[in-house]
Amino acid sequence: MEPVKVVVTGPFGVGKTTFIRTISEITVLSTEQDISDDSSLDDKDETTVAIDFGRITIDDDLVLYLFGTPGQERFEFMWEVASRGMLGYILLVDSTRPETFAEAARHLEFFQSARGQAEVPFVVAANKNETEVDRDSIAEALGIDDPGIIVEVDALDRESVKGTILSFLEHILTRIDDGVPIPV
């Protein structure tokens, strides 16, 4: 069985911990603590301060280790720790809070540069959708060329999260088929 590290990242309050808890086959190791500054949201009073960790077995040959990063800027030193040895990442955004897209773009920039010159495989997962996701607007806000890597997700729904993970894996396979090197 080959373990593969996948990072789940994004701004504060987009659903990273929920995403991992929804799909993990083990009890998630979570480092959530009460929020000690003024950054709380109406429905969120805890924040990840280190890393969330979960696991999902795809098949007999592939196990994904999911590492969720803290979203708050004051904990961004953990992004470097999380990025070491990753196959790629899932960037979660909150579709109902476009004001957070600039912060999501910072995550994107960091994780794209985490491996030096090699482009790291990723998908953008648009969570908390009240209406149809405008992939073009999200792509523009994040500065990405391909809106096709943006998928809708409901982080509370196991099948939806599974679909996002499968989209991520399909994206990687497409890159391999196209001859794009995958940095590992």
Description:
It is a single chain. This protein is of the alpha/beta class. It is built from 5 helices and 8 strands. It has helices at about 15-25, 75-85, 100-115, 135-140, 160-175; strands at about 1-10, 30-35, 45-50, 50-60, 60-70, 85-95, 120-125, 150. It has a 6-stranded mixed β-sheet, sandwiched between helices. Strand 7 (about 120-125), helix 4 and strand 8 (about 150) form a beta-alpha-beta unit. The mean pLDDT is about 85.
Give the arrangement of secondary structure elements.
Layout: E1 2-9, H1 16-23, E2 32-34, E3 46-48, E4 52-59, E5 62-68, H2 77-83, E6 86-94, H3 101-113, E7 122-127, H4 135-142, E8 150-152, H5 158-177
Parallel strand pairs: 1-5, 1-6, 6-7, 7-8
Antiparallel strand pairs: 2-3, 4-5
Helix pairs in contact: 1-5
- Helicity, as a percent range: 25-40%
The total domain count is 1
CATH third-level topology: Rossmann fold
Structural class: alpha/beta
Largest sheet: 6 strands, mixed
Number of strands: 8
CATH architecture: 3-Layer(aba) Sandwich
Low-confidence stretches: none
Please list the strands of the largest sheet in the order they lie side by side. Answer: 4-5-1-6-7-8
The ordered string of helix (H) and strand (E) elements is EHEEEEHEHEHEH
**How large, in whole angstroms, is the Cα Rg?**
15 Å
Q: How much of the polypeptide forms β-strand, as a percent range? A: 25-35%
Number of helices: 5
CATH top level label: Alpha Beta
CATH evolutionary superfamily: P-loop containing nucleotide triphosphate hydrolases
Report mean pLDDT, rounded to a whole number: 84
Alpha-carbon distance between the two ends: 17 Å
Shape: globular
